[in-house]
Design brief:
Aspartate Aminotransferase, domain 1; globular; alpha/beta; 2 domains; 14% strand
């Protein structure tokens, strides 16, 4: 794989533009953020402070991560999903962030150039690039706003073939801010039984950030046997507002985990010792109040956006978000889009750049997520600032 074939993260390019505008004195509302506007839990910060006094926090950790923390993550997973998981068949690996865990999972599964990984668009922009890094092929299934971006199982069935190695399911979803409901997960479980050689990478990094019931459920909860070919990806970045601390983990059958450990030992060694030790002493079950505050803020921002869209007679463009902290905007639904030549061509970057220059509102172009003529906006700003940003965005959308 040539390095030139791997795309740079588009958010880095946008942030350069944001910094240039701010330096020129323009007020910018950054709705591109993939992280929460909150500090981590106080108890976690205290645990980190305590670890600063111990030599072991500055030494190598095992390639797999500390055993006590691996057990802790596994138990937390089993408790939240209400499932049984045998230590004889399954294991956990801790890595430097969930993105690296995802890299290791794909690296363990993709063995040859013909191996395919199915993605549901719009998808997180790193998915296809990681598949390409490991020499695999990407196959896509589209989802649409009118169905709240929930893919049809039949569409997935139509792209799965003899070379399909895995499918990535991201629920709750980045970039659309929804999770697949229980009926979809049950149907997906039945579909997987039709394909006994198909692995699933279940990216659950936003699983604790559901602000409307019902909460997320997962296909393996309805058929525990599917855990044998499921790699669950999670971490502390979103649920503990700790993106910079870089601790993620994966839970899978022992053979897959061992392959991931072998890769990690050569690519990065073990993850951060200090943060792992702090987490060993941190109560993962103590975050209810912390998460409630975060979820209330996201829910309020979602309501601000919904009200603005409805009050401006754009309700046909709205779908209800309920988890994560994003909304995905389809520009083709707005009147201003008629000035563009064809909906078959992608103007996402052009539109987002114009919005940024004219309003100071920064969005991530939908092309990064595999969807033309659209954008992702993040609902992580403080509520008053978020409302200002949404009002400015509505003026642009209405006046154009």
């Amino acid at each position: 794989m040539k390095k030139s074939n791997i795309k740079e993260s588009v958010t880095l390019k946008i942030n350069e533009k944001i910094n240039t505008l701010r330096e020129s004195g323009k007020k910018v509302y950054n709705l591109t953020s993939g992280q929460l506007n909150f500090r981590p839990p106080v108890d976690l910060i205290r645990c980190i402070e305590k670890e600063l006094n111990f030599l072991k926090s500055f030494q190598y950790s095992p390639n797999k991560g500390f055993k006590e923390l691996r057990r802790k993550f596994s138990n937390d997973f089993k408790s939240k999903r209400n499932i049984t998981l045998s230590q004889a068949t399954h294991s956990c690996i801790i890595s430097s962030g969930s993105k690296f865990s995802l890299n290791l999972a794909i690296g363990a599964l993709v063995q040859k150039a013909s191996d395919e990984v199915v993605l549901v668009a719009p998808y997180w922009g790193s998915y296809p690039e990681i598949v390409k890094i490991w020499g695999g092929k990407v196959k896509c299934v589209n989802s649409f706003a009118f169905n709240s971006y929930i893919p049809k199982i039949e569409d997935i069935r139509n792209v799965v073939g003899p070379n399909t190695r895995a499918i990535i399911i991201n629920s709750p979803n980045n970039p659309v801010g929804i999770h697949y409901d229980q009926s979809w997960m049950k149907e997906f479980a039945l579909f997987l039984k039709e394909h006994p050689n198909l692995y699933v990478i279940s990216d659950e990094i936003y699983s604790d950030l559901c602000y409307y019931d019902p909460k997320p459920s997962y296909f393996y909860e309805f058929d525990n046997e599917l855990l044998e070919r499921t790699i669950v990806i999670n971490g502390i970045s979103k649920s503990l507002a700790s993106t910079g601390l870089r601790i993620g983990y994966a839970i899978a059958n022992k053979d897959i985990v061992q392959d991931m450990v072998s890769l990690q030992s050569q690519l990065a060694s073990g993850p951060n010792s200090l943060i792992q030790n702090a987490l060993i002493n941190f109560d993962l079950t103590s975050t209810t109040d912390f998460l409630d505050t975060i979820k209330k803020s996201i829910r309020n921002c979602s309501s601000i956006l919904r009200d603005a869209i409805v009050n401006n007679n754009m309700s046909h463009t709205w779908y209800q978000t309920g988890s994560g902290f994003y909304y995905f905007m389809d520009f083709t639904k707005f009147r201003f889009f008629s000035k563009y030549e064809s909906s078959k061509k992608d103007y996402s970057e052009e539109i987002c750049e114009e919005i940024l220059e004219q309003t100071g509102v920064a969005l991530v172009p939908g092309s990064y997520f595999g969807m033309a003529n659209s954008a992702r906006l993040s609902m992580t700003l403080e509520e008053a600032s978020f409302k200002e940003a949404v009002d400015l965005l509505m003026v642009y959308l209405m006046d154009k």
